[in-house]
Give the backbone structure.
Amino acid sequence: MSVHEAAIHWQHAPHATEPNTYSRNHSVSLNGQQEVAVSASVEFKGDPDCADPEQLLISAVSSCHMLFFLAIAEMQGFQVESYQDDPKGYLERNDKKGMAITRIELSPRITFGGDKVPDEEAINKMHSKAHSSCFIRNSVTAEVTINAV
C-alpha cells in the first residue's frame, strides 16, 4: 500500500471577465515542489490558460497506462524509444442524471528501437495487460478504450 498526497489552494478573487462571480483558478502542489495552475473547464467559467480537473483525470489514466506499457515492454525485451498519446475524455450525462467523464480514449503512438521489435499482436497484448493493470484505470468508472496508432 502507498499513500499519495496533493495540496489544493484557492483564494477568493474576482472572475477575470464576469464581475458577478468568482475566479475558479487555484493551484495544486505535488510533492511540495511542482505547482500546477488549475481552473474549471472553460464551459464552467474556467480559465483557458489553466489545466482543468477533467484534463488531469484523463492525463492520469494515460500516464498510468503508459508506465505499465513501458514496464511490460521492457520485461519482454523490447526497447521503447518514444511513446506519445493525446487522450480524450468525454464529459457527458450519465445514467444517474448527473455529469461524468463517461469515456476516455487513448491513442498511443509508440516507436520501438533495438533488434527486437514487436509485431502488432504482441503490441496489442502489451496494451491489454497495461489496460488491466493500470491502477488509475481500475479506479474510474469511465470506459477506457485504446486506439493504438
